[in-house]
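Deviation from plan, reported transparently: heme C complex.
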Amino acid sequence: MTSSARMLAFVFAALSCRSSATSAVDDDPRYLCRVDVAPLRAALRAAGGDPARILQPTTAAGLLALTSGHRHKFVLNENGMFVVAPLPADAAHNEYVHPILGDGAPVRGAGGMTVVHVDGRVTRVVLDAESFSYCTATESLRPSVRALQAMGIPAEAIVVEARPLACAGAGAAPKRYGAVMVGVGRRFETLGRALAAGRWELADYEMEELAEDVDELPGAAAPPSVRVDLVPTARAFPTTYLAPLAAAVARRDAAAATAAYGVAAGGCYGCHQAAGKVGIMVSPTPGDGVPWITPAATAGDGGVGGDAR
Ligand code: HEC
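Because the crystal trials were delayed, the predicted structure below was used instead.
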């Protein structure tokens, strides 16, 4: 036995110190999903994903559906069944994340599974417990190791890779919406003033900063008063509104930039309306202040946001 094989055997022995025959699955803790699954379902659909493609291997042969040698995200669900992403974790447009696999419900384990198979035979399974959303530690892999054994994977073929704990909410608290919006508003106003003055270099700069601020929106925490999901709108904003504006600025096309600015202002205010913040108006005219504050008597003069109650 090589020293690495001895170590692997030791790791396995430590994980399987309770015999699989005597331990009921109910002994294992269940881990709560720490993030909201609804926006993730939308992201899966947007990426062309389909929950029907998710794998649920119950036998060693079922594991052959995983790309050999590539890490796939998995959970061990409440019933002790494996639920595995159909794509490797590093595949493009892969939104099969742990909350999707666990359907937002508590799980008994979550992390990565790398299956090596040769000629239709599983020769090695590497498990790790890295899950940002379930925040599980390496210890939590015991029931998953037992489930693999129950599928007939030999003990020597199963190894565990310890990884640092990754955890939603462990880092800095997400930025609040209002704080990000103060930046967005200031950038948009300065961009408009630069356009009105024909100051293209300043417009270039503000365009870039505005894009960075807008990129923070999908991850920002909306106030409790907002009852709609702003994530899809926030995600679409850069392509729908900022891209045409940036293109016009890059071309130094004043007419197109002015028009695109007005359209983008409509996009801003559309989201404010959806969020119930009808008072935060955004003028379509470059150079106007943001937010747009018109005397109450003249509100309704046809500008973007002019229909505020
Ligand atoms: C995805 C939705 C969404 C989009 C897009 C959006 N906003 Fe907002 N905005 C909000 C919400 C929600 C608030 C209120 C935040 C709060 O209550 O904390 C807000 C607040 C603001 C405020 C007030 C900030 C303050 O506290 O003083 C300004 C100014 C603002 N937005 C400007 C803009 C501009 C300019 C754009 C477009 C470039 C824009 N917003 C795009 C949702 C959005």
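Residues 16-23, 305-309 have pLDDT under 50 and may be disordered. We consider this an acceptable substitute for the interim report.
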